[in-house]
Amino acid sequence: MTTPEPKPVASTNAPEASETHRVLAVASAGGHWQQLMLLRPSFERHEVHFATTLQDLLDEYSAQPGSVVPDCNRDRKLDILRNLLAMRRLIRQVRPTVVISTGALPGVIALAIGRRYGAHTIWVDSVANAEEMSMSGKLARRFSDLWLSQWEEVASKSGAEYAGAVL
Q1: For a Cys staple, 63 with which of 30, 36, 50, 105, CB 3.0–4.6 Å?
Q2: Looking at the domain assignment, is residue 131 inside a domain?
């Protein structure tokens, strides 16, 4: 008797895996960016544009083409507006068919705008959130075609999907 193959995690709204896509990969500096970079091999056959909040990260990881967007958080309302305008400009320029983010708020904004422009959207919550979905992750749920947690228990509690961890 053979063991059945595990089913791949897929959303009903997800793009076909065999297609080539224009991917906008977005993450704030720090652990969010590092986790996005660990996912990078998943994008190899696609046309990828990276976006983060620090120019040095684009250079350090040779993440080109790439763009820097203003950082923001819930306490800095004006920065949220700056990020929103910059992200809208970037999405209109790149015209991604898929937007993926590992966080934080700039990634949520990218998903919201990307979805409005017809892109498929993927959220991968940070592995640092072992107890519950992050605040940004909770916001991202409404804009995500595929909403993932890197912790099986968190996925189960929150309703997210689980496909493993990047670390």
Answers
A1: 50
A2: yes
CA gap 97, 120 in Å, rounded: 6
Tell the burial category of 59 from Cβ atoms under 10 Å away from its Cβ (0-12, 13-18, 19+).
exposed
Domain that holds residue 100: 22-162
Q: What's the pLDDT tens digit per position in 25-42?
A: 999 999 999 999 999 999
Task: Give the CATH number of the domain where residue 157 resides.
Answer: 3.40.50.2000
Separation in Å, CA 102 to CA 42, 50, 116, 124, 141? 14, 12, 19, 5, 13
Distance between CA atoms of residues 23 and 95, nearest Å: 9
pTM of the model: 0.89
Structural domain count, the chain: 1
pLDDT one-digit tens code per residue, 31-76:
999 999 999 999 999 999 999 999 999 999 999 999 999 999 999 9
**Amino acid making up residue 38:** L
Q: Which residues share a beta bridge with 159? A: none
Structural contact between residues 71 and 106, judged by C-beta atoms closer than 8 angstroms: yes
Q: Could you tell me which residues come within 8 angstroms of residue 141 by beta carbon, excluding any fewer than 6 positions away?
A: 123, 133, 147, 159, 160
pLDDT of residue 167: 78
